[in-house]
Each structure stands twice: as structure tokens, then as C-alpha cells.
Amino acid sequence: MVKKSMKNILVTGAAGQIGTELVMALRQKFGNDNVLATGRKTKPTKQVLNSGPFEFVNINDKESVEKLIKKYDIDTIYNMAAILSAVGEDRPGLCWNVNMNGLINILDLAVQNDLTRVFVPSSIAAFGPETPKNNTPQETILKPTTMYGVTKVSGELISDYYFQKFGLDIRGMRYPGIISNETLPGGGTTDYAVEIFYEAIKNKKYECFVNKDTVLPMMYMPDCIKATLDLMDAEISSLKHHSDFNVTAMSFSVEELADEIKKHIPEFRCTYKPDFRQKIADSWPRSIDDSAARKEWNWKPEYNLAKMTEDMIQVLGKKHEKGKL
Ligand code: SER
Fold first, then answer.
1. pTM of the shown model
2. Whose CB has fewer CB within 10 Å in the chain, the N or C terminal residue?
3. Which residues are catalytic?
4. Where do the domains of the chain lie, and which CATH numbers do they carry?
């Protein structure tokens, strides 16, 4: 059977940190009306709401998702709906239900409706304390200790299984912490790397919930969007991996990040009061080997710590001046 061409896209989690910006990038690329943004209960940004279709839907409600697939003649799904690591530790049952049962609904609907392609994000949370921490290899030990991580490893495996078993073209990568300035992340461990900028600009101080030596892999949103679109555009024949690409752009300690911010805001002070998220951060890699992504679909980031910091401070500074922070 000839598969439909890639043009009618459904994005779940469109009110989330990545979903918000992904919807706008996809609308720019494929046309506003061709990208249906969906969310479970949070309203998306005005920009998302005003630029194209939006519907409330819960990915655990398979029938309602199917109605939207038919109504909008969807051929591609970006499944960005998820419960992140910190909230997942508070509500592990909810985390499993959304991240796994919701995902399986999406994958089954994709098979049943003969969709062209599905994007399923994974995370550095797929790794665990036994994984080598520095330059973490593509193929390595995946024994996470958070429910979020458990769902991410399971999501990678089930996605690769659907690829083999049903021929469904599923792609995904292990996102590092994503730093952005449109929509705040909701309930993750790497949130400090975003909050620090908002607080530096608004209050010139930040109390960080992990210690100053904590190093995690990170990426600025423009690179995250580029990686996502590029992987989805890659020729399938060049992909040896499918749902589990390591990707990264930079690694830094919180202290290094605070020092970089001080270059722009000299009065900025960062203090440290680690909470339960320290243990989660300590179970994840410090840096990532993303050579498979570089080789198979030419992944290359544009932003390092200095360039990202400069841009974040410029964008958030302007928003603050306009009273929009
Ligand atoms: N940013 C996510 C979290 O901290 C990791 O994928 O939960």
C-alpha cells in the first residue's frame, strides 16, 4: 500500500515546553492549517492558539485521539505529551499511565490508521547510576531508577518493536535538558537550567535545587527543534537506530552556568539547596556521545554555553522590559 505523504501533523503535549515551540516550527514548515496542536488540560500559548487548529485531548482516551486523526486526516504524530522526572517520582502511576499507556495508544492508532511517521521522544533519564557517566555511549546499560526513566527505556523498546513488527516508521532521540524561553518546563530535574535565567533577570538571584557541581548534558531549544525536524526528515535507509539516538549540545556544572550568567549580570548570585532532585540528577550522565546521530542524520548543534546564555539573556531581558516575564 502507498503510504500517505507527510503533511497533516498532530502534536500532543502542545502546551508543554518543547511542544509549544515545535508546533510553531512545524507550522512554519508545513503550513499553519496542517499542524493540529493538542493538549490534555493546559491552554497553549496565544501564538499556538491563534496560528492554527488546537483541540483538547488526552492520549489515554484512545477513541478521542482516533476521532482527531480521522477529522484532520492525520498522517504524522509528534507525541510530546509526557509526565517529567520530578512529577513522575511524586505520581509514578500517572507517569506510567501517560508515558506508556498513552504512548501505546498513539502507536496502535498509528498502525491502525496507516500513518506515515511518528516521533517519540526519549531522554537522558533512560540512563541510570550504572551507566558510564562521561561520554555515555549509544549502546550502554539502561537501568534507570526513576519511573520517568523506566517509561523512557520502555518507550524506546516498544517503539523499536513496533518498527520491526508492524513496519511503523518511529523515530526518537534521548533529549538532554532543554533550555528555552517561551514556555517553562513542567516538573523535570533539569528545570534549574531554565529557572536560573528567569530568576537572574527578574531578581538577580537564584536558589538552585541541585548542588553547584552537578553536571548534566543540555541543549538550547533552537537546536532541539532542529534535531527533531532533521531526524524526522532523514532518509530511512541511512538510519541504523530509530527511537534511541543519543544527542547533546553542551555539558556544564551549575556553577559554570552561574559564572556565564554573571558575565552579563554581574550582580547575579546563585545559592544551593539540594532537594530530592539531586538524587535524580546524580543518576544521569554528565556528558553524552552522540556520534551515531552525527553519522546517521548529520546532527550538529549550533549553541554552546556562551552562545546560549547570551541569547537567553537577550530574549528574556526584552520580555522583562515589556513586563512579560
Ligand atoms: N528534562 C527532563 C527532566 O528533567 C529530562 O528528560 O525530567
1. 0.97
2. N
3. 148
4. 9-177+220-246 (3.40.50.720), 178-219+250-287+302-321 (3.90.25)
